Predict the 3D structure of the following.
Amino acid sequence: MEKIVDELLGQFERGGLSRRQLVQTLALGMAAAAAPSLRAAPARKGFKAVAVNHISFGVKDYGRTRDFYAELLGLPVSSDDGTQCFLKIGEDSFLMPRKTRQPDGSAFIDHMCYTIEDWDRKAVEEELRARGFDPKADTDESFHIKDPDGFGLQIGSSKLMYVP
């Protein structure tokens, strides 16, 4: 590239190119040089999240946490098996507190699940792989990955509703 620019400048200095021709040629050359890199990185579509499906978290005192959310926010409790339950929020979302699996008993967010529109299992898996993730299927309606901070992220369809 540098050789070409030197040659063009030489032609200009010798009167073989006008200033306008030099500028136009350099501009076209720069645009042509940039074009392949623009084509090599197509924009990714991504997904359209339409709801927080659920938040799954581990807690030290499961019963206390369940009662706190049920009493303070009026969330109906379902499928309580003594280690986890579902606390329904509206029609499409829920909290899922469970006994922690941390050795020290500390609380943690296990994962957050987002419902996306236009679910297509194969297309979702392909997009996640194209972005460098190793998606793990949870059901036919969702995949798990890790976000940039290491939090569990579940991406699912609107059919992914565990609340009985």
User: Anything to note?
Assistant: The chain has four helices and eight strands. Strands lie at 49-59, 77-78, 86-89, 93-99, 108-116, 136-139, 142-146, 152-156. Residues 3 and 66 are 72 Å apart (CA to CA). The longest strand covers residues 49-59.
